[in-house]
Design a protein that fits this description.
Largest sheet: 9 strands, antiparallel
Number of strands: 9
CATH topology: Hypothetical Protein Pfu-838710-001
Strand order of the largest sheet: 5-1-9-8-7-2-3-4-6
Distance between the termini: 35 Å
Number of domains: 1
Radius of gyration: 16 Å
Helix content: 10-25%
């Protein structure tokens, strides 16, 4: 089960500074191409292609419950990501399961981790949207969210 606060922000900078000042470890800093596929069963499949600044490109497939609500806090099922190389096999599986193309994106993603908390800081290239996601263990995530929910107002 995924437990996540996710919302648009004006700037990623204060959250990067928060992570760095509070002992979070930078786990990845990648360009990511993503493809989303929807299904009438109210789930989505996602193909994510991570293009790191150094190292090999990796492709992943995962699934999660659809949630198009505007809620900041989302709790939903999410599969583990499966790394793959065979794009034709993945396309065949998605087609067999009834998933249809529902869009794509390109973003820059930074991931910071500490204990049971994961920060995902996304900058979407085309729309220029900046999105913060804080996910992980409920008790720890709730505590961190209370610490950061007004962080941008301190920078205005």
């Amino acid at each position: 089960m995924e437990y996540e606060y996710s919302y648009k922000v004006k700037s990623l900078k204060p959250y990067i500074e928060y992570c760095e000042k509070n002992g979070y470890e930078l786990k990845s800093d990648t360009k990511q191409m993503g493809y989303v596929f929807s299904n009438p069963n109210k789930t989505v499949a996602r193909i994510k292609i991570d293009i790191p600044k150094k190292g090999d490109t990796k492709k992943y497939l995962d699934f999660k419950d659809e949630d198009n609500s505007k809620k900041i806090l989302k709790e939903r099922r999410e599969s583990k990501a499966l790394q793959f190389d065979d794009e034709e096999a993945v396309a065949s599986i998605l087609e067999f399961l009834g998933y249809e193309d529902d869009g794509s994106y390109i973003r820059n993603r930074r991931v910071y981790v500490k204990g049971g908390v994961i920060f995902e800081l996304d900058y979407y290239i085309k729309s220029r949207n900046k999105v913060l996601a804080v996910e992980g263990v409920k008790e720890e995530v709730d505590k961190v969210y209370l610490e950061i929910k007004d962080i941008e107002s301190q920078y205005e």
